[in-house]
Amino acid sequence: MVSRLRKAMLLLVALLLVVGAGWAAAQAVDPRMSDDDVRGMREQAARQAGEDFLSRYVESDGRVVRRDEGGDVVSEGQAYGMLIAAALGDEPRFRAIWDWTRTHLRRPDGLLSWRWADGRVTDPSSATDADLDAARSLLLAARRFAAPELAEDGKRLGADVLRGETVTVGAAPSPAMARPGLITVAGNWATAPPHAVDPGYFSRRAERELLDASADRRWLDVSRTQRVLVWQLIGTASLPPDWASVDPAGRAVPTGPPDGGPTRFGLDAARLPIRFAESCDPADRAVAVSLRRVVAASRDIPATRNLDGSAAGEWQHPVALVSAAATDHAAGDREAGAARLDQASALQQRYPTYFGAAWVALGRIMLDTSLLGECA
Questions:
Q1: b (16+ CB within 10 A) / e for 296-310
Q2: Count of other CB atoms within 10 angstroms of residue 216
Q3: DSSP labels for 163-209?
Q4: Quick check: 152 and 98 in contact, CB under 8 A?
Q5: pTM, two decimal places
Q6: Where is the signal peptide (predicted)?
């Protein structure tokens, strides 16, 4: 019996290897393929990655569960699920995720509580990246599903972000900031100076969507000021940090995370090149291009780096590979970017995680497709 079971397992492993090899071969770009064929192939890979995330991590009631992180729910994950569902045109799953989110996470000020576990909110503080991603997804879903009520929800959430998660910096005379401007801070808890900022939260496309939907020109100010901050941070080191502290004059200084830890370019900051590379503004893409020589310097991309670019450990994570792919894409080297996205997918398949699955899907969608909207 044991021998038969062992043979069956070996046969299954062999079959999976053959299927995996066939899938990898299917992703290779044949030089005889037309541009439309290549785009179609890459869109299919993005759709498959999105479906993999939704199938693995979204419950029928709309919870996006971090299965490898204790089984909790965070606003970030809900927003990722909404973005992916909207991109794939999956209206039932989008509505389930949004209905659960607004029922269980929405705060009295309209922002989203960060963490829910064991049937209740366990951390009511907001996280700005989740609020921005959720607002963006609502505006996209409103167009895709012909649902104007979702657009109202998105505009309302964007207005709540401006009210509860932005501050003005640069009011005092300072060489750091040419003129005062708005920035988004890490959450409602970071509005007192010095302000805690996570540069990986800056979402250029969300800011643009909210500007177009609301005609509130403060979103232009947010985008301009945050780009200044990012250049400041890159100017003090080779890479932007996971976290920074910004004083009222607009001076940005790299710091460790609020709960302690080293000052590094890690999984939080790895999202910055992705978000800037997908921007429709060439000035934003230039930021991602400037990071390429360090972020995409080798095939073996470390998960975390010191701010001078040196590896801070030997382990790898799909998000770091997607980040490198983003700098390739921003520089116009789409073939190199596609190869790194395939590497990220392969690593995610070997070591599946919630965060890796989300950013493999989002990376493919944001960089290789127009599923989240075209640039004008």
A1: beeeebbbbbbbebe
A2: 15
A3: HHSEEEE--S--TT-SS-EEEE-SSGGG-SSSEEE-GGG--HHHHHH
A4: no
A5: 0.91
A6: 1-24
Sequence-ordered list of residues with C-beta below 8 angstroms from that of 174, at least 6 positions apart, any chain: 249, 250, 251
Which residues, in sequence order, are CB contacts of 7 under 8 Å at separation 6+? none
**What is the maximal distance between C-alpha atoms in the chain?**
79
Pair of tokens at residue 243 = 């976290």
Phi, psi of 257 (to 5 degrees): -65, 155
- Cis bond leading into 194, ω under 30°? yes
Q: pLDDT for 149-164, tens place per residue?
A: 999 999 999 999 999 9
Neighbour order of strands in the sheet with 73-74? 73-74, 113-117, 120-126
Phi, psi of 305 (to 5 degrees): -130, 155
Specify whether the CB–CB gap between 241 and 165 falls below 8 A: no
Q: Which residue has the higher pLDDT, 16 or 219?
A: 219
pLDDT at 298: 82
Q: What is the pLDDT of residues 176-226, one digit of tens each?
A: 787 899 999 999 999 999 999 999 999 999 999 999 999 999 999 999 999
Pick the CATH number of 39-368 from 3.40.50.300, 2.60.120.480, 1.50.10.10, 3.30.390.10: 1.50.10.10
DSSP 210-278: HHHHH--THHHHHHHHHHHHHHHHHHHSSS--SEEEE-TT--EEEE--TT-----B-TTTTHHHHHHHT
